[in-house]
Amino acid sequence: MTANSPAIENSEIACAKINLALHVRRRLSDGYHEIETIFAFLDCGDVVSVSAGQDITLSINGEFSDGLSNSDNLILDAALLLSSHAEVDAGAKIALEKRLPVASGIGGGSADAAATLRLLNRFWDTGLSLSELAKLSEPLGADIPACVINQTSRGKGIGQDLEEIGNGSLEGHHVLLVNPLVQISTASVFGNWDGVDRGGLLGQDLIEAAVTGRNDLQKPAQNIAPSIRYVLSELDKTDAVISRMSGSGATCFGLYQTKQQAYSAKKRIAQALPGFWTMVGELK
């Protein structure tokens, strides 16, 4: 196969991911954990773009680009995986604009790899469906298939058994993300989980399931990064339907019924926690 014409759309948003709830059920013998979660995605995040090139290469810029490798990166792993699977004989010059904090529980590298797969699927005209791309991506990481699908989903197993559920009662809601600019190791947070199964998700309505849910990694993450407590305390003072930590942290989120409420909360956080990173987006 060869690359498509220059007229093809050449960029893709690596949408920020949040876990509206994240229930850890048990440790598995392979080192992973069995979970139940609700994945949701914002309409903003990192941006991956591509242009024609002889080889597959990566360049990185943006606010959070420092320290990231352009040779040892999930984006390149994803590109090479798709190239091999689809027997592509074209290269690609991939560029990442890193707008989301690193190691922050909102997709990050997983979302970047997923966006790369969607983008190159178009650019190389490989013709794979989203479900085929998601299946292909499974060896790259637990969250990547959900990030490929890029829509509200229930996740089970290690997060790769997905049921797309649509936004339903979440339609029109906005999200404020807040990060204390502290990186947390996912492995360390899972390693400090107390091993207690507190039960699965309840209810079919998304907001009900989220509100009655929890994030079982929140407490171990707070023990590693106490600043998470400050973020959640301030979010609790806003009009959020839910305020919770996402993934393994340290990013926390507030879910709001309106855009105005989300931006009012952002203003409050900026005053109460100066220097903390924030972003507002609408749920996809």
What does this structure look like?
- The protein has 284 residues and is of the alpha+beta class.
- 30% of the residues lie in helices and 27% in strands.
- The chain has 9 helices and 10 strands.
- The strands form 2 sheets. Strands 1, 2, 3, 4, 5 and 6 form a 6-stranded mixed beta sheet that branches. The chain has a 4-stranded antiparallel beta sheet with strand order 8-9-7-10, with helices on one face.
- Strand 5 and strand 6 (161-164) form a beta hairpin.
- The longest helix has 15 residues, at 109-123.
- It is globular and about 55 Å long.
- 44% of the residues are buried.
What's the main sheet like? 6 strands, mixed
Strand content: 25-35%
Radius of gyration, in Å, reads 18 Å
Count of DSSP-assigned helices: 9
* Euclidean distance between termini CA atoms: 32 Å
Helix content: 25-40%
Number of strands: 10
Report low-confidence residues grouped into runs of 5 or more.
1-7
Shape: globular
Please trace the helix and strand order, writing H or E for each element. EEEHEHHHEEEHHHHEEHE
Structural class: alpha+beta
Would you tell me the overall average pLDDT? Answer: 95
